[in-house]
Amino acid sequence: MGPRDAVTDGISLSEVAIDDGFWSPRRERNRDVTIEYQYEQLEESGSLENFRRVAAGESGDFQGMWFQDTDAYKWIEAASYVLAQRDDPELEAKVDGVISLIADAQQPDGYLNTYFSLVEPENRWTNLHMMHELYCAGHLIEAAVAHYRATEKETLLEVAVDFADLVDDVFGDEVEGVPGHEEIELALLKLYRVTDETRYLELAKYFIDLRGKDDRLAWEIDNPETLGGGEYEDGSIIPAARDVFTHEDGTYDGRYAQAHEPLRDQETVEGHSVRAMYLFAAATDLAIETGEDELIESLERLWTNMTTKRMYVTGGLGPEEAHEGFTTDYDLRNDAYAETCAAIGSVYWNQRLFELSGEAKYADLIERTLYNGFLAGVSLDGTEFFYENPLESDGDHHRKGWFTCACCPPNAARLLASLGEYVYSQRDSAIYVNQYLGSSVTTAVDGATVELSQDSSLPWSGEVTVDVDADGASVPLRLRIPEWAESSTVTVNGESVETPSEGYLEIERVWDDDRIELTFEQTVTRLEAHPDVAADAGRVALKRGPLVYCLEAIDNDRPLHQYEDPSPTSTTHRPDLLEGVTVIEGEASVPDRAGWDGRLYRPADETARERTEFTAVPYYAWDNREPGAMRVWIRS
Amino acid sequence: MGPRDAVTDGISLSEVAIDDGFWSPRRERNRDVTIEYQYEQLEESGSLENFRRVAAGESGDFQGMWFQDTDAYKWIEAASYVLAQRDDPELEAKVDGVISLIADAQQPDGYLNTYFSLVEPENRWTNLHMMHELYCAGHLIEAAVAHYRATEKETLLEVAVDFADLVDDVFGDEVEGVPGHEEIELALLKLYRVTDETRYLELAKYFIDLRGKDDRLAWEIDNPETLGGGEYEDGSIIPAARDVFTHEDGTYDGRYAQAHEPLRDQETVEGHSVRAMYLFAAATDLAIETGEDELIESLERLWTNMTTKRMYVTGGLGPEEAHEGFTTDYDLRNDAYAETCAAIGSVYWNQRLFELSGEAKYADLIERTLYNGFLAGVSLDGTEFFYENPLESDGDHHRKGWFTCACCPPNAARLLASLGEYVYSQRDSAIYVNQYLGSSVTTAVDGATVELSQDSSLPWSGEVTVDVDADGASVPLRLRIPEWAESSTVTVNGESVETPSEGYLEIERVWDDDRIELTFEQTVTRLEAHPDVAADAGRVALKRGPLVYCLEAIDNDRPLHQYEDPSPTSTTHRPDLLEGVTVIEGEASVPDRAGWDGRLYRPADETARERTEFTAVPYYAWDNREPGAMRVWIRS
Description:
nine-stranded antiparallel β-sheet; 21 strands; plasmid (chains A, B); Beta-AFase-like_GH127_middle (chains A, B); 6-hairpin_glycosidase_sf (chains A, B); Glycoside hydrolase family 127 protein (chains A, B)
């Protein structure tokens, strides 16, 4: 198989069934609550009304953010992932209804954007960096591909194809430029793969290659009066590129949208972190298609920069709120921005890097991100979301039901609904088990039908059983040894197998009702951060298996900053707590409160400390009880 | 002597001559550079032009901030302090020139405010909380009192009296309300003391007593369209009370201006820290006059709250930038706002508390503030100023030559010029030596002429000599034992005197060419902050004598966050460094950089540390060399 085959990989979402103690309840709530709620929001927010009014030939009175069309597209995409895995005629009918509205709103030449059609039809393609027409197009295409794959219906795919053809006609010809928010690139590569039309591959390559090379951004900054956007009907302002791309000293470059230099020259991950993840995901797909060494090297370099200098221990990305993104090496301040969508984007990118390389480290990072930086973004009951995921809070940061810029909730919904895409892969005629969660898959490998059935006790303990049957065919099976496993033991039908300390354990044999049993040792580890991370100097974080832990005020008597030298003594699974979590308990040192006598400062040699108990809970579960302080990094 | 006599205290600025190794060069630069530069700024900024144009009956085209008149008043005040201590005909002529412009701009009824006279004369006294007419009046009065005391000329005093009389006629009658920025209260008390007119005492009491009781603020918030202010001629906006006094949740109260409840009910120091210091200073003066127990108790309570829960180790005040002020108990984040003017205001308040009580703790705090929180605000060469005084910097915080809101530079100038007011006091027929710095004073106590001459080696070492002569009169002398002195030895004419560990050493004898020698032991102390100060948990600050120290990047090889457990080993005076400072040198623990192998996180049990040297410099001297990080609180 060539690289392209590797990524399309033969394992479709519909071939994977998830039945997992940890993830299934979350996925059910995602399906029954979140996706249902989002559907209601489409009407509430005016998103569907925008489509209806365009179809009716009306103008003005656009509702919502100017890229609001994506709410409908992302909802269709999430719903389609649900439909790929189970029959749901009611949901399918709703999807068909929304698609019908979208199709009706499409212009005769294929153009589709309700903001421009209603408000300023004459200004199409003028404000590439801020007005997000291509970003909306990308989400339309992703929704169309997901819907087509799930249902084989071409209703939305035809809409997407018509629009993509228009974009292909216009760009590189009438208009030269790249979008200010990447998204269409990865969508075009998906479209290419379902249609086999190389023009979409070429168009994606055009956008990826041009970024950082053209002078369109400078022109848009210098000519805001000729562009679409500006003031909104309700008086609010759509930001100008000048506001977003200009640094404090008055200079500007494309850093915010990774357009400060050509991708292949970039040494560090920069700018808006979601934009960066989407670009790198697309570029990795492009590299899978082209095999271009220079591009692959640049992506590996960027990944190394990110994971060794610019990533939270939770897998969260981007400390800075002002531009929602990356700053400098080792700036990992604990009042992190770490947008939920950036964690999701990281999962997308890492999945493609895995498909490109077959390396386990990418699946390791997906696991870390899923259980921590991503999952914290969703409340236990599935109804509220974090936009930002700090690693420390005074108790005033809480999830919300929805946002004006509602990117995170639907993004979380589509990731949970498509979780099955990350469990197994087929690559080079081998089956990879990348994530451990209760599930089964039936797929064809070189003509043989392979069935895998997995039971998993993650994340609370490390026992996994994989039953394999291939009717006597010989297929290599590659099982990821998680980076966090202190030690691993693996048996096949009870007989021990030698196991590497990391990477993949490959087992190749004639499979015929065989059972693989894996045990990954989970110990509580005190992690420290690199010495150049100022925010974590003199601090440790507790981790157990794939889970990062935190202290919450509700479980601990003292203000959290007073805990020092946390020494774990035991772990206890508490089914009653936070829908069932394993807590870490231990002792820490805290200051003796006596002897201050109304003083605010005193000689440090008077310091006395005492021991006290602490309880840590998984980071993903924080802020699901009464509001209070939270801290991941505890003084050591 | 009654309390009122205590504060006027018989020692005038002109009786004190300062000749000190540490302070005199700073005072000379203040006189020759800062005050001269400020005079030029009065013309540059349009401040004087505003007065000229009002005098000429013109309108419109007001220049500068709407309270810009205070620049001229504060300059006159600072210049008058200089004139009180030396003849300077050139400076005196400049002062007379500015006073003449001011007098010409006064309206027939006594009103004086160039913004309102030029821009909206019909809106006098409409916008009390934002438009600062009474704040400007207060600085006019302070300047007039200082000028009168220094020169005995009544030119400006007459202007101030006419304006004060108008204010007295209008307020409590036509208009009920208090100013949004306190200042006139303390100024009126000064005016009362030079004129003996009780109407000014009563008017100050009116403003102090009404604060927090009236509903004028609510009315101004609800009726912004009827008020003065609003949009400026250059398009900028004068903030509305609604913007400044409203909390995030939409409710409002007078907290920003200490008007949330009556002063006598206040339990905690709140709001804008400069405003708070000016109010409390005025209220303390009022208490000196009235002896009112309830007011004294409330001031002591507020002082205790501030000094035991809301004050930086430097004496700096107010962590929050948004409202330039106080927040909650123990919120002492190291990216402190700690406005220079707030430190200056604290000196004003504490001086009055001393005058009220005769307690040494107030003089101790003045010393701490002068050497640290205040002095850091002025560059070594006297040309640049901090508005904010953080205790930790990444290297991007620097002094500037001037500010749009130029309150701090002239405030620093008037404090340095009037430093002589804080060295000696006369109270209850005793002479107090409150600050140790080279100086002499000749003053009358109960008919006797007392001469003191002081030599001091502070802040670098603790040797002080005080020569006393009273021609054989017996006068109690109270010498402050600094709070920082680990131990003290005092001799009179070579004979030891028993010395308390803190407070005042009182020596009463017939003085006739006697010599007192004091030695205050200076040791390097590692201070810790109260356990509830989250920002300083697990950290220590180095202090020696009155000086707080800091690490600057330029003196230390490692990023400052890497230093742990700083152990001082020696102090060295380096005359070449930063105009001569004593540095603290020692060893600290820093992480071994090896063994990270491209990892960002690793198990903490792999931690290795090594010892390295560090050098700390006085906090006041930071940011006077090449830009770099700075840190007061070092990990312990």
